[in-house]
Amino acid sequence: GDSVTQMEGPVTLSEEAFLTINCTYTATGYPSLFWYVQYPGEGLQLLLKATKADDKGSNKGFEATYRKETTSFHLEKGSVQVSDSAVYFCALSDPGTASKLTFGTGTRLQVML
Amino acid sequence: DTAVSQTPKYLVTQMGNDKSIKCEQNLGHDTMYWYKQDSKKFLKIMFSYNNKELIINETVPNRFSPKSPDKAHLNLHINSLELGDSAVYFCASSRADNQPQHFGDGTRLSIL
């Protein structure tokens, strides 16, 4: 079945540091890939998405590229801010599964001044 | 102008009780979902409805019964609550297959 593997957290960085959160996936079809962010006490918000190989999703300085050859969708940001502190979820939606999202375990990011 | 709204935000109740969580979306989406997030933040799909029709039922105990009176609403009723039901329950909606899902703020259910 489908699965998503994320690097374990928490990830603690200083403000303006470079961020990478690794995500790899297993899927039977050609999935769409997503990053969602959950701020403390809130629901999930879509951060970015990519629907086919080599697509790059980007939003708010975050980027991720759909790599079919390595089945990866790593999240990156060049310079993190304290306000980026949250839990980040990688997810996939496989066309053969009625659009359900399969999530990774989430990675908590803490950015310090 | 909340897109996906859930009520209540917090629900504290005793084992054995029956409770409901309501969800409404004003985005005009055809598909709605319920997810469960456990204490370790792991999120798992429970149900999906498309135009009031059940599409996904992911081996959820039959104490959980979703009901969709129309395509803008998907309510979750839980009978005979157990300690293991304590979690945050998220409602979501999407326009079509593989489109991004929009999430509500969650309902934190605590069983005493």
Description:
The complex is a heterodimer of chains A (113) and B (112). Chain A is an all-beta fold and 113 residues long. Helix content of chain A is 0%, strand content 50%. In chain A, β7 and β8 form a beta hairpin. Chain A is globular, with a radius of gyration of 14 Å. The N and C termini of chain A lie far apart (41 Å). Helix content of chain B is 0%, strand content 52%. Chain B has strands at 4-7, 10-13, 19-25, 31-37, 43-50, 53-57, 64-67, 75-78, 87-94, 102-103, 107-111. In chain B, β9 and β10 (102-103) form a beta hairpin. The chains are: A mainly beta (113), B mainly beta (112). The interface between A and B is medium-sized, with 26 and 29 residues.
Write the layout of secondary structure elements.
The complex is a heterodimer of chains A (113) and B (112).
Chain A: E1 3-6, E2 11-14, E3 19-21, E4 23-26, E5 32-38, E6 44-50, E7 56-59, E8 62-65, E9 75-77, E10 86-93, E11 101-103, E12 107-112
Parallel strand pairs in A: 2-12
Antiparallel strand pairs in A: 1-4, 3-9, 5-6, 5-10, 7-8, 8-9, 10-11, 10-12
Chain B: E1 4-7, E2 10-13, E3 19-25, E4 31-37, E5 43-50, E6 53-57, E7 64-67, E8 75-78, E9 87-94, E10 102-103, E11 107-111
Parallel strand pairs in B: 2-11
Antiparallel strand pairs in B: 1-3, 3-8, 4-5, 4-9, 5-6, 7-8, 9-10, 9-11
